[in-house]
TrEMBL record:
An example molecular function term from Gene Ontology annotations: transmembrane transporter activity
Entry keywords, A to Z: Amino-acid transport, Cell inner membrane, Cell membrane, Membrane, Plasmid, Transmembrane, Transmembrane helix, Transport
PROSITE patterns: ABC_TM1
GO cellular component assignments: ATP-binding cassette (ABC) transporter complex
Record-linked SUPFAM superfamilies: MetI-like
Protein name: Amino acid ABC transporter permease
One Pfam family this sequence matches: BPD_transp_1
Amino acid sequence: MTLDFTQVFSYWHVLLQGLGITLIFTLSCAVLGSLAGFVISLLRLSSFAPLRWLLTLYVEFFRGTPLLIQLFWVFFCFPVVFRLDISPWVCVTLSLVMYMAAITSETFRGSLKSIAGEQHDACVALSLTPAARVLYVIFPQALLRAVPTLLSNVVSLFKESALISSVGVADLMFVGQNISNSTARPVEFLTAVAVIYFVVAFPLTRLVGVVESRLLRRYAL
């Protein structure tokens, strides 16, 4: 077998379309999952023990099981259990958001605990409502402290999103597999897919390091 990577350029527009789908799922699910994770982290600090136990079980379940199993369960079992006819896109979005919410809730929980108690006392002294306290005081500080880890979670979600091809969503991995099968050129096209993932993920990983170092210097001053 002779390798011919020039054939990849004949399908570059199709691969870019698949990359676009991957980025859409990654960014939308990262934002929704992070917001849900922040809410979960707040609720896990509640004094109502059953709520804490339930949310802790949720977080540990989604952190302790493979994303592929979660994706398959939502895709195959969710419509049967709840008798709902939902599209693959909705199934994928739901599973990725629930997974992202679980892992980011731990990130936010750690950042919330790092906020000094004087901040909460100041909110009480200023007679801020609970909503204003969370929106204008707690959330900005927690987000700033959590940024490096959140960016790492986004990079991980981008790489994990390759699993959505297993349920027929035309992301980058799905497109690459189909082209490699139709052209009988798996080495060229799967290598191209791997390079595309790397080209997108590597700058993000470097960005995480830069942001983390700057935040560490800021807090050290």
